[in-house]
Amino acid sequence: MTTRRAYRRTDDYTPGKPRIEVVTEPLPLPLSPTKVLIKVHAVALNYRDANISNGGNPWPVTPRGIIGKHAPGEIIGVGDQVEFLKISDRVAPNADTENLTGREPTRSYSSSDQKLKVVCEQFPEPPILTVNYAKNSNWHEKVLKYTNGVGVDIVIENGGPGTLLKSMKCTRRGGIVSQVGYLNRKRFDDAHEILPTLIDRRVILRGINAGSKSDVDDLCTALTATQIKLDDIIDSTWAFDDADKALQYLWEGKQVGKLVIEI
């Protein structure tokens, strides 16, 4: 094996033009001393893949990068200084390359009643309380009503400028808002309210992106020790040659769960 096939971004955002293209490239052989070679078995797309491919990422990115950071596989080659991994180990890449060492009912929010229905049917216990924020502009008030005015413990904040303030308002005093996304493109017109709300509700506001290698190691150890079976939340599976269609499907927000590309 001396070559690989991969989907690289075209970085061409012209309407109607493909966002990704298949390339055949030579493998980086021989491996450098600290590198490993992984045979990827499948790839799960994230909104981040679609967003970067459509030019929407707010941070600099590698030109014509390869999509799909969630890619479980098997090690088929190791450099001569690799100590903790060996051939045939099952692995997955870690997106946090700069940090390699490192109780209540669920509330779900969506702009689609159908998506909320699917989630509730797939996970009936414990019951999930839902809010359609597209139909209810004051959705944070409904969340407060669900919690008898107290607010939720933790918010996974995926909107950004248009939703952050309301997320903070429906978080309990001393609760946590973890900012992970930036789907909403509105300006921070309510920025003057952010600081008073932050102080008044004593909210812990923090940014998150990916866990460290140590976090992943701890998770794998816990799963092995407890033999917990995690339920898959897979929307659909796509052939490798249809990855561009899958990316567009994701960009249009049609999915409920993960999109998996077969290799």
Summarize the structure.
With 263 residues, this protein is α/β, with parallel strands linked by helices.
Secondary structure blueprint with pairings:
Layout: E1 3-9, E2 20-26, E3 36-40, E4 42-45, H1 47-53, E5 73-78, E6 90-91, E7 107-110, H2 113-122, E8 129-132, H3 139-146, E9 152-157, H4 164-169, E10 171-179, H5 191-200, E11 204-207, H6 213-226, E12 234-238, H7 243-251, E13 258-262
Parallel strand pairs: 7-8, 9-10, 10-11, 12-13
Antiparallel strand pairs: 1-2, 3-5, 4-13, 5-6
Structure description:
With 263 residues, the protein is α/β, with parallel strands linked by helices. The chain is built from 7 helices and 13 strands. The strands form 5 sheets. It has a 3-stranded antiparallel beta sheet, with no helix packed on it. Strands 4-13-12 form a 3-stranded mixed beta sheet. The longest helix has 14 residues, at 213-226. The radius of gyration is 21 Å and the shape is globular. The chain starts with a strand and ends with a strand.
Number of alpha- plus pi-helical segments: 7
Instruction: For the record, give the distance between the C-alpha atoms at the N and C termini, rounded to a whole number.
Output: 16 Å
Radius of gyration over C-alpha positions, nearest whole angstrom: 21 Å
State the total count of DSSP E strands.
13
Beta-strand share of residues = 25-35%
Strand order of the largest sheet: 3-5-6
> Share of helix among residues?
10-25%
Structural class given helices, strands, pairing?
A: alpha/beta
Shape from CA axes? globular
Biggest sheet descriptor: 3 strands, antiparallel
Question: Secondary-structure element sequence?
Answer: EEEEHEEEHEHEHEHEHEHE
